[in-house]
Structures are given as C-alpha cells and as structure tokens.
Design goal:
elongated, about 110 residues
Length: about 110
C-alpha cells in the first residue's frame, strides 16, 4: 500500500481535523508524499495524540475477526505499525506497543 493510504489511515486514528491543520493541508486532500516539514509535524501530532492512537489501534484489534487472543492481537498491532512505516518513529511505535500491552493485560 502507498504512503498516501497509510497517511489517511493515520489521520483517521489521530483525528482528521488536527491532521490537516498540523500538516497545513486542505481538508480532504490526499498527498502522495509529505515534505520533511510535514513529516515532522505529523510526528509531533502523533506524540501529542499518542493515547488516542493507542485507543484507536486497540479498537481495531478488538474488532478484527482474525484476533482471538493476546498473541494474535500483538501480531495484528505489529502489522499495523509496519504498515505505517516511517510515518511513525521507532520511539512512537514502542510507546504504542507499551500502551497496547497495558490495554491487553486486561484480557487475561
């Protein structure tokens, strides 16, 4: 999948209004590439809305028919983090994993 699709999915998880505002984009625009400045702004938004990102990804995990336990939930999460590629930093991905571990600990 393209970076454009990954950006749009990340926008949905972080909040579309904030996404467009932070990246100085017209609402509904779907850029194929983000400038270095836009990438920096996106990462700032992800830092500021990390809890919302974790909740959104956790909701996706719970809704997935492929997830039947914590192990398959973690695998699903890893696929999603991989899909976002360089849109999220390694540190942000690790924080999402930490947040998800806290969420999934309630499943046991």
């Amino acid at each position: 999948m393209s970076r454009r699709i990954a950006s749009l999915q990340l926008a949905r998880l972080l909040g579309k209004e904030e996404f467009y505002r932070y990246l100085s984009l017209d609402e509904g625009s779907e850029p194929d590439e983000l400038s270095a400045e836009q990438m920096a702004r996106l990462r700032l938004l992800a830092d500021e809305r990390l809890e919302k990102l974790v909740r959104g990804l956790a909701a996706e995990v719970v809704a997935s028919d492929d997830v039947t336990d914590v192990v398959s939930g973690v695998a699903y999460l890893e696929d999603r983090l991989s899909f976002f590629g360089e849109l999220l930093t390694a540190s942000q991905k690790e924080k999402v994993r930490d947040g998800f571990r806290s969420f999934s600990s309630r499943w046991r």
